[in-house]
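re: ur question from the group chat, yeah i did fold both. here u go
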Amino acid sequence: MNPKLPYVLLVGAAVIIFILSCMLVSRGRRSPSCESQPHIVEKTGSTSQSLVFADLTPEEMAQVVRYLQGNLGVPLVDASRAKPSDNCIASVDVQVPAKAEVLRFLDGGGARPRREALAVLYFGSQPDPNVTEYVVGPLPTPVYHRDVTVQKYGGKVPYHRRPMLGSEYKQVGAFLEMVAFAAAPTFLKEVFEYDGTNVAFQTTAPHGFQSGDRKSWFIVFQNVSGFFVHPVGLEVLVDHSSLDISRWAVSRVFYNGQYYRDMVQLESAYVQGRISVEKVRKAPQDGDFSSMKPRAPWAAPFPLQYEPQGPRYSVRNNHVLFQAWSFAFGMSVSTGLRLFDVRHKGERIAYEISVQEALSVYGSNCPGGMSTRYMDGSFGIGRYTSPLVRGVDCPYSATYVDTHSLSETLSPSKRKASLCIFEQNLGSPLRRHYSNLQSLYYGGLVNSVLVVRSIATVGNHDYVWDFIFYQNGAIEGKVQATGYMSSSFLHGDGLRYGNRVWEHTLGTIRTHAINYKVDLDVGGVKNSLVAHDMAFEMTRAPWSPEQQIERPRLTKKVLDTEDQAAFRLQSKMPRYIYFAANSKNKWGHQRGYRIQITSFAGDHVPEASSMEKAISWARYQLAVTRRKEEEPTSTSIYNQNDPWTPTVAFANFINNETITNEDLVAWITAGFLHIPHSEDIPNTVTVGNSVGFLLRPYNYYDLDPSIYSHDGVFFTSEQDFTACETNPIACLPKTASCLPNFPLFTYDGFQNM
């Protein structure tokens, strides 16, 4: 044996031990886990006071149901299995107290308002079927109910105006499958290979052409993933106006460009060879082109956001604190996400900011598409708020909040993680300046905002609803649209109404309009509306009179009446329009908050239309009216099914009343025109489909309040900008080098469907 071999082995072993030791030491220096630290949060508003706006708890909902069951004197069927001829509870929601009563409690030391619920009931088992709304209270142990239907709407709500229950959709589906389709077995079998399970139906609305109608076109699709873009060319008009299901009937049938009296006539024409058949290739269960399954394998993780020292905001019950901001939040069954008592630096900026309606108007050369005007509040924007997926719908580390509702059932339902709240670094400065003239310095502020988000999936559409709070006192309301397009079967002159996106699929043109209610209280309840804009004026240069200068100047106008403050959709609106307070800032200007709208709206339905008054809020990009308790919303859930005699007509709110030094409400409409195209397959992206508004301080402060943010950065050429005391950003390798504590991924979106 070579005598040097033991030494070589010893040296080799020593080297290996050294390398392993280095690796262990290196691993021991791994970044520690991020630990939450106490943060400075300005005390603005009371957590317990915000409960005056809180959604009903499941226990309160259950108490209301028990009370109604025991005190109305009529049997109540569970709405999930109710027939049109039954009595049932359609929904139960919180009844927000009157504003004057709430403000006495919040600001004047008055008594806490009674807590009450609003219950919507369908009475189909009566000589005069109708919809009735009851206020039930006080909670948590109700002892009274009060019919408020006539008080709210000026009369009873006829039964035909009721929104369709899920049970009615099921009953229509059963009618189509068991009665209507039974009349055309040969056609369905040979053309669609129909087996009773391979088609899906999509309803249209409104249901007819005049008050009292309840006739709905049901569009037939292949029953596959993303069925909305798999039309087969068949549409059936069902008359389901009778409360007796056995009297429902087919009123008309459409197939591949031709109309038929009923399914019997369609079957006869097919058997006799008098139909032009367009066979659609059978799609696999995953939908093929409509599948949202990624076409590429998972690669490196996408960038993630984390909070090195824990959240810098707090959420307690329905109350949120973030830096100088505080507000209460809630979720209406019909209209979705809403905010109350929004304050900045302790001063109330807005009493209420809420979604009112989401409207879509379709065009097509097929009957279902051309007659569709969806008013999503009728279906329930809050009701269809969906559970959120960590890391996609919201940042992984966001705070997720469960919401509860009672709709079309006798028991409350829980939607886990259906609302999220998070701080987001937008990756750009809120403001900055690099000075290379005279003095040399850099000053900037990271644009970190707080976002409150919910996402509603109403049929084919997914709406991402955001309220965003900026450090300079601005608030943004934003909606992003995604989901699947709704399509028609391509035939004839279909390309007049959209683009072909697949072999037999026409992506149909549609407009989207979103309405918001913004009850600003700027420096107090009483405000005026002021418009500032610009105009060019010609003048002679004082130092050279023979020369002319065109210079912009400021124009000012106080808008005194509601008529002056109603700006039509495509009309020119002053670029600076703001709610003015009765107080002034340090520089002598009226303190104000400016309304700035981001919209790419299509044209509004012509006012000559018989149904236009039901959606008359969409005439206006902005309308400011005097606030009235009897005008709480711009529309009604009953407008969808009877737009010809609308229960609430927003146009009636505008009656030239004075709006100077009054409690005012801004009704804001933002929208976009969507002409679907091939890139909307498999479904629509949010990019470019985002609209909304900003509320921005306008002389409200003496200077930008964000200068007091703890996130500011400033250093000069003479300072050591690598020192933590001078530049906190330089310390990030120390203060932010930690591993985020991401919770395990869970999802409850497929539970209790």
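okk and heres the other one u asked abt
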Amino acid sequence: DRQTLVAVLQFLRRSNLRESEEILRREARLLGDDLGAAALSPAATGLLGAPGGDADSGGEALLSRVTAAASIAVGGSVATVASSSPGVAAVAAVPPGKGGARGVGARGRRPAPPGGTPGGPCASRSLGGSPLFYKLLLYANAFAVGGGIVVEDQPDVSAVLSAYNQQGDPTLYEEYYSGLKHFIECSLDCHRAELSQLFYPLFVHMYLELVYNQHESEAKSFFERFHGDQECYYQDDLRVLSSLTKKEHMKGNETMLDFRTSKFVLRISRDSYQLLKRHLQEKQNNQIWNIVQEHLYIDIFDGMPRSKQQIDAMVGSLAGEAKREANKAKVFFGLLKEPEFDVPLDDEDEEGENEEGKPKKKKPKKDSVGSKSKKQDPNAPPQNRIPLPELKDSDKLDKVMNMKEAARRVRLGPECLPSICFYTFLNAYQGLTAVDITDDSSMIVGGFADSTVRVWSVTPKKLRSVKTAADLSLIDKESDDVLERIMDEKTASELKILYGHSGPVYGTSFSPDRNYLLSCSEDGTVRLWSLQTFTCLVGYKGHNYPVWDTQFSPYGYYFVSGGHDRVARLWATDHYQPLRIFAGHLADVTCTRFHPNSNYIATGSADRTVRLWDVLNGNCVRIFTGHKGPIHSLAFSPNGRFLATGATDGRVLLWDIGHGLMVGELKGHTDTIYALRFSRDGEILASGSMDNTVRLWDAVKAFEDLETDDFTTATGHINLPENSQDLLLGTYMTKSTPVVHLHFTRRNLLLAAGAYSSQ
């Protein structure tokens, strides 16, 4: 805004940075006299500090705002990221000696190709805004270097709180709030639903303002009188809020900082907004108007106001709804072209049964593989958009096996539901906390609260380690069965236990080629294990707090992790530093998933939002709001177009990634949904929950006839059909086993897993 701009220009002038001042003025189209004549408003003067007075409170406070979006560690070579600054898209860490810290706004380089040097990308652009903003960040960076100003990677608590200094008469707060409440409740039905969204953010800010200014009794009375009016899905936040009763409690409180640093987003039609504005101006209600302007972001759209049902579907996250702008970027949600190679035909004995069918059966099979590779999906990213690992011979062999299995795949649908095979972990006194199953369904891994990782073979083939070095030297390397010979039969067993973590293991993931296994733990590390030797190869240290989830890319090599530090990190197995840091969530990142084309990563968080990140440049390209509790499961449809999300609110929400819209809601579960999986062809969605059930949903029906016209996309007028019961194909109860993992085999048999709980 102009006020801040003028303040920055004044500061540049005072710091004798004339050149920067000129560039900024040109970019902002401000003439020289404009600046001279522009009398600074009290707020701008406050930002700058009084002339000749205490520059510390002024210039630095302003700079800390300007640089909060991207603080650069000066002198060293690692770019750090402001973890609680909501606009930050991503800043990547650069290993020392590999290019140093470049200015923010520099174009992020691609991840090094597999096996390349660890010269990870540099700080990428953030805050999809005007070029002016990038320049501002560059200037801020220049000040940080030249002006000796300490740039922190957390917003300064006192600076954040000082916004609460402007206070009205504490005794009138209840009157202001109840006056607004009365006005909204008496307004027309069409406006009431939209304006009711103001209740919660205003309630929180007014309460915090009273506490900050040490009107404790008024704050308590205000809280008790109005907290019951808030929507039920804010109960957990209100519980935290009720514990903040003194000014001292507010310093360093995460919830407090979240609420202060991220503007609460409300989406309101122009008519409703004008009505509100008129009311507040007539009533001279400056206290509320100040909060609306200072702390809320009102996303105004032209058109009909939304109904209560439409609003309820989208709200509930920690920072309100997503701005419409947040979901406008283009997303390449199509699948990458499959590599071409010949598929050897089936053995004669399998085809011998039907002499006539033999040639028929062979031809289409070869064709289908060819046609699949030749046809380029129009929504797919360019094949080389991010470097992906080369296919090894063993991978090609596996793909051939996969295609053979696919030919025998059961075609699922409402008339043909999958069989479900449930793996129950009995007597799991160690506390089962994570499960994964290999793509070919040959191994299952469990992560446990006693910090062990246990791998089982679920086929008659036992798990064997490679022989010792001395024994390996005796083997004839030229023999055809060398891969068999290197395995030590003496080590064969159904179960291998991997020791190394020093805290509960919260996430596990097999690599697509089944050679590696990832595990992440409360100890803040992600470990990579070899499934040839059953030993730990690497411990990746980057998170400072528990890591809740990790997952391999569908192409291997890359993997993602998310944790309590509110960020997700993208890694490559041969880099000890993360390639990308995805920052923007306001609470723990609880689950992570790669898109089938590996160009995007979805993260679910305890801030009740789901974000989609671009692996290439680290930008956040989608923000989905609508869940009323922390998100614990994510699943992409096999065609890459849709995303299903499950949370503690017991609802499965369906999203159209291309349009950035919610397109469905599946109600039925009564507890947290920990597992979601689409069948191999995408006809069925399976969900597993803490309510001890597996439910099957008709995905084809859920995604047909979608209303994704431009109007819906522009205004968010989504009309979710109340058709959960029509889409529910079956509910399967376990005796007393919460479902923590689901997996469809290559032939569409559904495998489920969980630990039996006796209570």
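fwiw on the second one: Residues 170-306 form a domain with the Serine Threonine Protein Phosphatase 5, Tetratricopeptide repeat fold (CATH 1.25.40.500). The chain is about 30% helix and 20% strand. idk if thats what u expected
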